[in-house]
## 1
Amino acid sequence: MMSVQGEVRHQQLLPGTGAVVGVSRAAFGSDRNSESVFIHCILTNIKEKEEQELEEERENPSGFTSLPLDEETYLALAHQKYKNGDYKQALEHSTLVYERNSLRTDNLLLMGAIYYQLSDFDMCIAKNEEALRIEPRFAECYGNMANAWKEKGNIDLAIRYYLHAIELRPNFCDAWSNLASAYMRKGRLGEAAQCCRQALALNPLLVDAHSNLGNLMKAQGMVQEAYSCYLEALRIQPTFAIAWSNLAGLFMESGDLNRALQYYKEAVKLKPQFPDAYLNLGNVYKALGMPQEAIVCYQRAIQMRPNYAIAYGNLASTYYEQSQLDMAILHYKQAITCDPRFLEAYNNLGNALKEFGRVEEAIQCYNQCLALQPSHPQALTNLGNIYMEWNMVPAAASYYKATLRVTTGLSAPFNNLAIIYKQQGNYADAISCYNEVLRIDPLAADGLVNRGNTYKEIGRVSEAIQDYIRAINIRPTMAEAHANLASAYKDSGLVEAAIKSYKQALHLRPEFPEATCNLLHTLQCVCNWEDRDKMFAEVEGIIKRQINMSVLPSVQPFHAIAYPIDPLLALEIRYSNSPFAYALQNECSSLKFSLCYCSRSYASHCLKIASRFSLPSFNHPSPVPIKRNGGFERLRIGYVSSDFGNHPLSHLMGSVFGMHNREHVEVFCYALSPNDNTEWRQRIQFEAEHFVDVSAMTSDVIAKMINEDKIQILINLNGYTKGARNEIFAMQPAPIQVSYMGFPGTTGATYIDYLVTDEFVSPLRYAHIYSEKIVHLPHCYFVNDYKQKNLDALDSNCQHKRSDYGLPEGKFIFACFNQLYKMDPEIFNTWCNILKRVPNSALWLLRFPAAGEMRLRAYAVAQGVQPEQIIFTDVAMKNEHIRRSALADLFLDTPLCNAHTTGTDILWAGLPMITLPLEKMATRVAGSLCLATGLGDEMIVSSMKEYEEKAVTLALNRPKLQALTNKLKAVRMTCPLFDTARWVRNLERSYFKMWNLHCSGQRPQHFKSYPLMFRQNESLQPLSSGVNRGMKQFDLNLLHESFDLSLN
């Protein structure tokens, strides 16, 4: 006697997935359709009586019997209908007998059995109690009442009645068998085994006892023994449908779905009215991917048992998986009507309602589930998911943590908590959570990829690669794992391996925007220009679709600055709801719009991340002007960067933080990266007035610290470069927030008020493509630190020779030290033309990366350039790089993305350049550098044709080139480009202008700062003490003067 195992769907929804996980719910006990209702003896007697009556009828055709004919006829009909499963008709006939004779205990016993099958357990108990009042020692009545109490959930009372039945009739084998079932429900497996064996000792042919003993063996993990028990039952009675069903259950759990299907079919063939077997037959069909067949089976089960809650639940789940949400909702509700305490139905109804968009109703369902069982882990997790989607991160985290207090066996809450921790910059806890995910399921490829992503983000790239490779070994078709492995390979300098992995990801999933865009960028990094136009067209299509869908673009802003995007794209952009976008469509090219759109989308993404911290709005410092009368108030400036260390930003700005005038400005540096123990980090840490390592803090804690430090102007030195935490700025901890240096373009962020730039890099005619207000610094916005840090690079006693690097002594050497991704076929073809036109010339490039060398050599040869005209050297340390730059004769810039840091390097080395400014900010920086030397007219050109002619002319006119070189070397110590102190004073004046506008209640606005003139003895240098004692009598009033607001 077994109640067949029914599957219940637990849906566990993860962000970005919709995964549905099926979990079987085992419930050992007796199946009502196979339950002995202890009418066996009665039915035997009735059968004998029926045979006797037929014999009497043959002998007595007149129809006279010793008992009233109608009463016996109705009783016989009731028994017949009961055996056929027609319980309502059986009850009608039995009721007629009861009306004629209410004291017939055999009829009362039958009525109790009928009510049991109709699930009216109270009436079943009442009729058996009525029979016991007539015949107190009627053992079968106690047995049937035990069955009813077991169905009502009172297993202890059921056991008492089974034991009383056995006390009345010790050889009552059915009672022993059903008592075993009750003990199994209580987990008392030892006693259950004893009862089964007692039943079999009384009747070795009792197939129910063999079957229940098999269930007991199965519950103890003794599968082979269970199999033997079921086979023994079938040996005794090959038509015993229950044993076939239980045998099918064994094969289903072992994964042999075809054998399970065969045996469930045999069960329902032998017993057509077997709803539990139809339920599990439906489960097998569903597992085999045959949903329509599963639906038919569930419907058959419901026809046989109209109040079959589990069948409604599984039917609903099948509809859910077929995306028939309306039918799923209907049947989940029906399951709850049948069983108001059906926890999984509430939970799964919530999932269906949520996916249907009825989120408030979904929340009610989850709460109803939790009202019945406060520790229901799936409902807790699903509530957390809703709050996560609503950006109510603290509420989401509390539900995930509540789930983990209930169970540590579910991976979803660990996974989702890890996502929260990672977004908050709490990488240690994120990794711990992913470790738990992998503890629960060591083969969880998603968990490995997610942990790998976290490792990669904190620079532990080798560990990330290991996780990605493990994920691929587990799930070779997982495109995300291949794409992320490619990204990690690229970060490790293994560019060819990265390209191979990106291509594999796209082979597995051709429509994979991130892989397509990252493959394009990786190919550009090694100058692989095959199918370049086709790939850019594909990327343009991706950008267009993502703009139309208002989703975060797959092209990263920092990559996009070097991309030539089709100008006609703007005409196809539908973004009519945004006045800003409308202006862009009408006033700028699509290239600029696309770049700005990428930035705006990433800025919006940062706002979303920031909102997950659920911080209240910050109170900002009072808008009180800084006193001009020598008071103690100072302007509090905060710099935020992940690049305080051995990074170009620190190479360029190393002296800036200590050069600020401490009488007027109080500087705070917030380091987002840990100490790399380099001289660059140590210098900034020592010279800045306040330096705080916040690398281990979450973004919300950093924002709180900045606010508590009462920062008035906060500078973002990262933009969209690696290591940035723009969500800090999205929380707006300071009243004025500024973008500078890290990212050469607009941030597109509403929470960034100003962009510090200059008039050449960001002309007024392009102001509308910036979301920030533009601040034009005098001369050049791009600062450097060479006069303070790299004077020794100019020492004539330390200069290198060409032979030190294998450079030809007698050749004219053109050079480009930019990263290879900044190059494109047009500029390289121009270089090849130059080489062919200038006799005895060569082009000096860097292995930046090395994987590009072979391709560029091949391209050059294909253009008719001699192999020896292309020279590659390795990347060198900063001072060596500057010194050896002077070995070249002329620097050739890349128009699509200029030399920025490299441009200042070569100009400091005294090497002239040729640059072609275009429209984008990143294409105009080198021109600004040249202008700040005072020699810009001799180095800036206006077309590619002029670029080529200028290079050839200077190479062929050595005296002219030498004169330019001499002038450049002569102005290095006096020109504005290398005067860091003057640049800092001009920047401070801009800061004060921003603050005064704020104090006057005006919104941020464009303005231009005119140059502040220094006398020769006023040049400022940072002192080793970190205090600028050279700033003696600097007049604060000068900070408030010489501004032009004509840009408003």
Note: The chain has a mean pLDDT of 84.
## 2
Amino acid sequence: MSSPAERYADSRRRQAALRSELARFVSTCPFPLDDFQEEACSALERGDGVLVAAPTGAGKTVVGEFAVHLGLARGLKTFYTTPIKALSNQKYLDLVERHGADRVGLLTGDTSVNPRAQVVVMTTEVLRNMLYSGSRDLDQLGYVVMDEVHYLADRFRGPVWEEVMIHLAPQVRVVSLSATVSNAEEFGAWLGEVRGSTAVVVSEHRPVPLTQHMMVGGRILPLYASSDSPDPVAYLDDNLNEDPGASGGAPTGSQPPSPSVSPKGAGEDSPQINPELLTAVDAARRATTRPDSRSLGYSSTGRAYRPRRAGGSRVPGQRRGGSVRERRRRDRAGASRAGQGQDRGYGRERSSRDRAYGRGIRHGRLSPPSRVAVVTALERARLLPAIVFVFSRAGCEQAVSQVVAAGTVLTTQSEAEQIRQVIERRTATIPSADLDVLGFHAWTHALERGVAAHHAGLLPVFKETVEELFRAGLVKVVYATETLSLGINMPARTVVLESLRKWNGSAHVPLSPGEYTQLTGRAGRRGIDVEGHAVVLAADDVEPDTVSSLASRRTYPLVSAFRPTYNMAVNLLARTSRTRAREILESSFAQFQADRSVVETAAQIRRKRRRLEDLEQAMTCSLGDFREYARLRQDIAEAEADLSRQGATAHRAETARTMTSLSRGDVVTYRKGRRHLHGVVLEVGTDRSGTPALTVVGEDGRVHTLTPDTSPQGVLRVGRLPVDQGTDPRSTRDRERVVGRLRHALRAGELDTGRRPHRSRPGRARAHEDRANQEDAGNIAARIDQLRQQMRSHPCHGCPDREEHARTGRRWAKQLAEINRLHARVETRTGTIARLFDAVCQVLVDLGYLEPVGGQHEQLRVTGAGRLLARIYAERDLLVAECLRTGVWESLGSDELAAALSAFVYEPRVPARLVGPPVAPGSSLGQALRAQHNVARRVNDLEQLAGIEPSSGSEPALAGSVLAWCQGADLAEVMDGGELTAGDFVRWCKQVLDVVSQVASLPTLSADPARAQAVRTVSQRAAEAARELDRGVVAWSGV
């Protein structure tokens, strides 16, 4: 039993707790705090910084809101930062509702609301810019909340998070809110080093439990076997297969259940996969080849698809012509339906992928259920509202179109009326002409039925309407891309994943366990649902053990993407010495992680060194030094590889030249796998790296993209065919027309089909054209002969155990190479950031943004041009500054300036493709765009010399659209014939507006005297351009 003194002390602590700010804050919360929330808030009130890592939906933001409460109570400012503007807008509205509009502000680069408020919500970049400019708004700053801090792993924008954490004043307390990461302690240790005392609070607990499922055909089955309690949707049995969208599959009771298994790589304690699910998957695979009228065997026109084998070949007995005619009839009927009341983005013809989704043909493969079947099953199982992640904007729109076309209605008349009222309120200020362009009527039609899309290509006001309706429970199904997983407050009862692969900007890659957890974390509404549900659609490449391995793993390490930038370098050197700047940069999380890994790498080197000594003993030869002999053999192998690579490089260069010389309509022969094909060139362009790329329709009816890398055998022109202007390789009808002409020409012998592309022998390619290559090849061949002569004359060459020693020698050489590689890793990771900073500084010195002090490169001074660069915060900051410095934009009007700047902002989803009207090459804008391209090439050359990854270049595809908009064109004119959605156009215009506004603010800074007036003139035109840009649909996206 405690003593009276201890009871008295405990009573005092309880009384103090009741008087604390935390107690006052808790009294305003609608529910008691969880343990992790209370622990983090208590640490914050003690004066510590905090890192909170918890699952999506666990309530991390409560800790951030307590920081706001503390700031207000103590008379200090609080900045609440988020990674994206949509999240900032949403958080601003939440805080205004709680604290009032007079106490809360918003800053997102293009939007400024009450910026002097005591609480300001902003994007992280805005805070970084304030730190570098020494803004007076930082006075009295007490707390900074960094929401979604795991975003610092983002390659492009992640470094900003670390810049902020490093440069914030020491007295500012930082609240870092992160998804669950596996190295939270490591991140917390770094925060402790750079920010002082930091409490690390990690919670794996979900307030709403998550149940994992898979959907096979029309059945939703639990992923895991459970003997504890029945699954809430386990009652979904064969009666669901009566659904007209259900996919086939034998009943569960058709054979004994498979034994439950653990996911690949799982331990003994891992959950067991549901044997009923395994049985259902096996039964679906064994189903015979037949058209399934109950599944997606119908097109949008109601006509059945003809059966095909796996890979698309026809089943025996199917007539060739019938299938083509049937498909053409479907296309015409589908286009007709799409034109009845349908607008941009809805009612389009389905892609080949969507036809595959809809085919429902049972041919021994596991096909995913249709989107209509999924919605029907979710509704019957009472698992709505649901978010369905599609990973494709076009896929989201197609999904909405398909579900609506099937007659699906998920709302009551009363709900539909409420939806109409919200739509009218949200869109009241948008002119009707613009609404027509935006696909308003089809969008409204879908919303009234409870279905919507959500992706970055939507107009912001459309996205915000969907979010409001979904939170209100009026919209039941939202088809979304993964951007919805980033903090947007749209919890659902169920999350559905159509695929476990996504496009990362350059390739289709599998989801990581962390991404899977982030996406499925949206399932389960606190205070509404007893549990949330994650449903993955079973398919050929989506097996139960694959899903289980993602669902059961929590490996999501936070890896820094920090790197010095040009803007960062000049801002640092404007405030401190080069030595001190290096020290600041070496305090980054990136260097912290690198230094920790060096210790582990050194231990690996010691272990491998011991193994190397053992191998040296094993290959001892009495005739001589076998290590020397082994090195000769290794040198010969490397020289032969060099010779082979040189030949491949020369052949690749010749293939690139051949591709560049081709044009639309040329017929080429090329190799695809083991087959030689003929194809018609429809497009000649370049990929993102500037490598030539051909879009070819082959005689097999498929579209192939050929580059020198994907066509090592080369391409050969064998003839030419007429191709209609405007032929689109994505159009099924256009492809069939081109393929028909090609096949006719092949049958008629009109092409030189006897020739085949072939790969030249290594080192011999183009030797008659390129004397330098020939000389290099000759030098390498002479060296190989010399090495072979040395090898034959070596004493160990005559050893009877030579080959046995040689095998040991190869292992020795491999081990030595591994040790050298690890040594190089240690050297590169020690001081990595400082070396990269030095390389950045060298480029800036070469271009005149920095200059040595007294001829000493160790001391650098920021020049007038450098002061301009210090105020340009953009992805291509140096390119913008260089165009200003060299006068590229001096002859441009305000509208042309905005269009020119768009080329340093726009990042195309498909490289080398125009998204709007073209710019005349001879116009002043066309000449400026060409000059920008030359500026980018010159900078890239210097970066290559310095060993820096080249900056992104100039992308002029959007310039024509921006020019038209600034000249007063309406939305219909700008969007006509372009491939950009209205939402994308607005989003890019907002980003262009941000950079234009930065250029407009430059006259207040001192540039080089000779350039000051010219820069001032450009800045004045930029101010005009900002007004021209910020109108109509572009101006509607503010809060």
Note: The chain has four domains: 14-202, 210-315+335-552, 627-799, 863-1035.
## 3
Amino acid sequence: MGVRSRLASLVKVFGSNIPASMEAGEAASQMTPTTPFSPGEPIGPYDGYQRNPRSQDFVTGYNIATRPRTHERVSFDTLKGLIDAYDVASMCIWHRIDSIRSLDWSLIAAKGYGGDVTDAIPVGMAALKKPDRELPFESWLAAWLYDILAYDAGTLYRLRNRGGRAIGLRVVDGTTIAPLLDYWGNSPAAAGPDKPEPPAYVQYVQGLPWNWLTRKDMIYTPFRKIPGSPYGRAPLESILLNANTDLRFQAYFLQRFTEGNIPQAFASAPESWTPQQIELFQETWDSLMLGDQSVKSQIRWLPGGSQIAWSNEKDFTDSFSLFLMRKTAAAYHVVPADLGFTENVNRSSGESQADVQHRVGDLPLIKHVQGIISSFLQDDLGLPLRFAFDLGEEQVDRRDQAEADKIYVDMGAISASTVRELRYGLPEPEGQPVPRFVFTTHSGPIPLSSLYAVAGQIDPNTAAPAPGAELPRTVFSGVEGTEPSPPIKGFPLAEQIYGPSAMPPAPPPQPATTAPSGVEKDGAPAGGITTETGIVGYDLAGRYHEDDEAETDEADREELVKAELVAFRRFRKARSRAGVWRDFEFRAADPIKGRRLNQAGRLAVRKAAGEVAVAGFAVRAADTGRVLMLQRALDPDDPAAGCWEFPGGHLEGDETPLQGAWREWAEETGLIPPSGEKTGAWTSANGIYQGIVWTVATESSVPVNGDREITNPDDPDGDCVEAIAWWDPEQLADNPAVRQELLDDLPDVLAALGVPQEQDDEVVKAGTGKAAALATGADWPGWNLDLHAANHWAPRIAGALGGALTVHHSEQLARDWAAQAPAADDGQAPKARQAAAGAWLAGQQPNLAGPVAAVLAGLYADAYLIGSASAIASLDGGQPSLGDWAHGDTDQATSQIDALGTADGLPLLTDTATSTAQGITDARLKDMAKVLAVGGSIAAVAAALRAALADPDSALAVALTEITRGSAAGALAAYQLRGITTGRWGLDPSSKTCPRCITNAAAGPIPLGQPYPSGDTAPPAHPRCRCSLLGY
């Protein structure tokens, strides 16, 4: 603008002196009169040649006006009157205002600015807290947006301090401002940086030109700027006829309910009436009806032959009024449903309308507001900041980016590790990247190595087969990770070119099948049993052909089943001696029976080896505390038929309990394991069952089937169904519908679920006659605290153990052991093999005890406080004095112990942490040795090593045992402080006490520090012991 203004000082050139360049151009374009049938030479210009053009054609004396919008078709007064009278327009305007001012906003660095804006942001926030020093930002924004949406005349005045610096923005009524024009039809501006500012706006007040203002004084930027006018175009201007019609429509209905001199109906009197009789009847009628609304609900008799004709229609439809309303809403880019006019629209059209409102309506106005405020911050306040509303686009952008990344990963363009590092800056553990692959819905992930194996020679420039490359001479028969779809039909191309030699070699001929004769006396497999697998095979070719099936005699089939069961019994004995189970392949027996026989055999082998054979999956909802349980089908061959228990089943192959529980969950519920975390575990008394507690956020995060029935996966016919439901753990106790094995382990189950257990009147039900000497829950308050403490410390113990063995380290251990371990079939006994693995592990000198000892030091402080406070409470009555202590707050625990006066014994207890940690790690090394002795693939052994080391059930056992030990030490210090010299053994309240603890409790009070019959001077007497030391 400044350049154009400076051109005003130039002298105009009048006359017909056309520049030589233009004359030459006219001649070349044949625009001269000398050209036949020429379009002609244009009339000579008034303003000159090649001068700056006017932006618009305006009337002469445009700036000489008596009010704003004098030369526009609609004045501000007309617009104001329409908006004030038209309710739909007002509703649309305020809906748009509320939609924008409800957004959060922030100040960020200006585009292109790379410096630090930490100090500038508070300055900008202070300036925008109250932009006009009076109204808060939301109210100020609403006033400004109203002028923009109602009149497109949003006007802001720059507030300045005494030094002339801008300090704020004040909203000015835009209907009082009239923009001025310069010679070129633009807003007047200074001719240069140091030139004086011309007036750019005139404010009219009371019909008088009140004030002249420059562009430095005002911010006047129309939102819907149109050529040919310095004013903007208000939305209502585009629907003037529609608004006028709607107003008249509403006025028409208003008149229907307004009293006037036009009656609502005309009645026809009988033809025999005279005018005098009609007038008399009218007077009588008016005296009865006029002004009395109650009469309208009564019955009045009319003379025969009278007829009523209404003067206006009685039926009304809103179709036309809704049409007018929709046009107005469209002008303001508002969805009618947002105004409360709910129409019959489907979800798709509703979402698309909402998207249009945001994309076409709110978003352009938001950018308009952001640009003006950002310009004020940068140009007037000199801050390198940008004003930005939070539109929620970052989450949408991140979702779109994630979808794009998934496409690139699935097509093999990049690796998942590339996305991990590029998006989140996280390297892969041990620096091992995830390999690239191509993902297909039919075959899943196909490694690139599988593609290279079948691709042949490839041109590096085109990634296509190299020119002249020879076709592979063998038929493609599938590579691991790939599966042809659809199957190959007809003759393969390689066979067509190279003949039968291209086909894969046929499998070697199988030896004739002999009747299974089991195992010889020396243990060698007999005929009919393969030496490699020990699996009995039968010639069942043609079994599934209808013709052969018809010829098969039922008696022969029964004999075949009997022979197969005899072979299975011999196979089971052989597997029991080997100590490793492998499923027997049943071909004649019933599939369900065969599956259960294999499960029973696997259970016996694992039980003999001291391993878990069955796993359960207890999904617990954190929001309700309820657990998901499954009711077994009414199968006469199932010992748990009709009972409720947790989903689960027998482990298969090299599965860990968690892996087996996941698989059984998926099979029995038809769902994938929900997102959550492992928060606990328990093991049955016989050691063959392990339950996994898997905590999810809410019950709704587990999409249980609506019919609440699940098909039994062990039944191939699908005619057995099971029910699934959420249970409150408190409903399990003594419930006849719950499986008995679960009830037997219920105390441990409830402890793993984190359910506080209250004491029964009789704590132990051992049937020994010594129950009368046992303690109750009221004797020892610590039983209300120890389980919570154990649940807090168990994950930390597991984490300290598991953190010492990384994925890379565990895989390296598995490789090193596999490289020097004796072969599995060398005849070495399982126990000898396990001993060798333990000795080898000890030689690796794993550093495990240090981290565990650090955790035990904190655990002992908590346990010591529980014991001291509970002992004092048991003597004095009331609740334990714990102060502000919380689990894991070692400093607060120590401070509270000092307050109780029992701190002398804590250092002696803490000094045992190192030796106790060494014992714990030695036990874990034994479990790791079992894993190495069993063997398997490198990945499976590595995973099993990590699971054995950080087993949460073992960690919970350690936590319970050591909390009991620390609690007894704290109780002993409290008794000595109070002068108590004797004590008695308080039994574990979980109703699962061992004979050793029962004998200790039956011994009665003995001097403190003296051994009980078990040889222990205080609890614990065994792992998981929760017994207490009671003063007497």
Note: The longest strand covers residues 614-621.
